[in-house]
Write a structure and sequence with these properties.
Layout lengths: L2 E6 L29 H9 L8 E6 L3 H7 L8 E4 L5 H15 L4 E6 L3 E2 L2 H18 L3 E5 L10 E11 L2 E10 L4 H10 L2 E11 H11 L1 H11 L7 H8 L8 H6 L6 E4 L4 E2 L4 H5 L3 E2 L5 E9 L5 E12 L4 E6 L2 E6 L5 H8 L1
Parallel strand pairs: 1-2, 1-4, 2-3, 6-10, 13-14, 14-15
Antiparallel strand pairs: 4-9, 5-11, 6-9, 7-8, 7-9, 8-10, 12-13, 15-16
Helix pairs in contact: 3-6, 3-7, 6-7
Length: 350
């Protein structure tokens, strides 16, 4: 049994416009003063769990050159390029074929490449137990995040009885998934104490993944099986280009995880941030006594609760409250904090 990591790096992060205005995946961006992107931080994190030869990255083929530059320390063959976006079921399925070819008994850690996890030591500790448990019980393990507010952007996992506790890491049975609830239901989940956010981090035997795809999404299984026969042949890329567009555009959460009954959930208090909106991103920046969060040179006079991103040009605010100001070469965003969810809708209209 070998441990492989699969990093998903194709998400565009439209809520983070204008920094993502040129269709650069969110994982390729840096949101602080370092030169490390979220993807590069993720690679460093998983290198402490497995070797770089066993780290795979999936992203769109349009970002090929940028991806090779971001992951230049990894083997080039470990970069899996999607012909077009088809959801996480398709990209995890395709990438897992390459891992399966290396080791049919592999345990895969599948995770987004655009999340920030500050407590790397706890992440490593949890991964050791999660990998052991995925193999021992032949099951899927997921990491759940304790909600800090009643979010509607995340899926929720209902946890049941405790299955085991080792080295202060607990695992619970999953009683089911709820994908992105409305405000009323999110508040109910938040107050219940028995629901966790779905982190999108899954640990599973590669053989189990394909068993579940076969049983639950047979049309996808048939496409993947045909592709598998050509991996490592001269016709590999041509076959992927021809067959991959036939995949349904669906997430692995909808297709597999919501239907799988034997999942285990590990609550992971590892200082996790999905970096999904400017509000979450700003939590990682400096802040002043008026709760203004900023990156770049910022001067404030009688302003409160603002978020300011302007790495290259000084910004001054006078007497304003609760505004988001994002200044990039791609464009300028100014909006109230309570309209942050409208950014995605605005961009989709363009």
């Amino acid at each position: 049994m070998s441990v492989f990591a699969l990093i998903l790096a194709g998400g565009l992060g439209t809520r983070l416009w204008p920094l993502t205005a040129n269709n650069t995946p969110k994982a390729f961006l840096s949101f602080d003063n370092s030169n490390l992107s979220l993807l590069q931080r993720t690679i460093i994190r998983v290198e402490k769990v497995t070797s770089k030869e066993k780290i795979y990255i999936s992203a769109g083929k349009n970002h090929k050159e940028s991806l090779y530059q971001q992951a230049q320390n990894l083997p080039e063959n470990n970069i899996i390029l999607e012909p077009l976006p088809k959801g996480t079921l398709a990209c995890i399925g395709l990438s897992s074929l390459y891992i399966k070819k290396q080791d049919s008994s592999a345990i895969i850690i599948s995770m987004p490449g655009e999340q920030l996890i500050k407590n790397d030591k706890l992440f490593q500790k949890i991964m050791v137990l999660a990998v052991e448990s995925a193999q021992k019980y032949n099951t899927i393990i997921t990491l759940g995040i304790k909600p800090s507010f009643p979010a509607t952007r995340f899926g929720y996992i209902h946890i049941g009885k405790k299955i085991f506790c080792r080295n202060d890491v607990e695992a619970f049975e999953s009683l089911g998934f709820t994908e992105k609830p409305d405000e009323k239901k999110a508040l109910e989940f938040f107050n219940s104490g028995v629901y966790l956010w779905n982190s999108g981090i899954y640990i599973f035997p590669v053989s189990l993944l394909f068993e579940l795809i076969h049983d639950l999404v047979p049309n996808v299984y048939n496409i993947l099986s045909e592709i598998e026969g050509y991996i490592g042949t001269p016709n590999e890329l041509e076959v992927i280009e021809r067959l991959y567009p036939k995949m349904p555009n669906i997430s692995i959460d909808y297709a597999i995880m919501e239907k799988y009954k034997n999942m285990l959930v590990i609550p992971a208090d590892m200082d996790w941030n999905d970096m999904g909106t400017w509000v979450e991103v700003a939590e990682t920046w400096n802040s002043d006594s008026n709760n203004n969060s900023y990156l770049g040179e910022y001067i404030n006079l009688d302003s409160d609760e603002c978020i300011v991103y302007s790495p290259n040009i000084p910004v001054t605010t006078i007497g304003i409250q609760g505004l988001i100001i994002i200044n990039t070469p791609n464009g300028l965003l100014v909006c109230p904090k309570d309209r942050i969810d409208d950014i995605k809708a605005l961009i989709q209209k363009q």
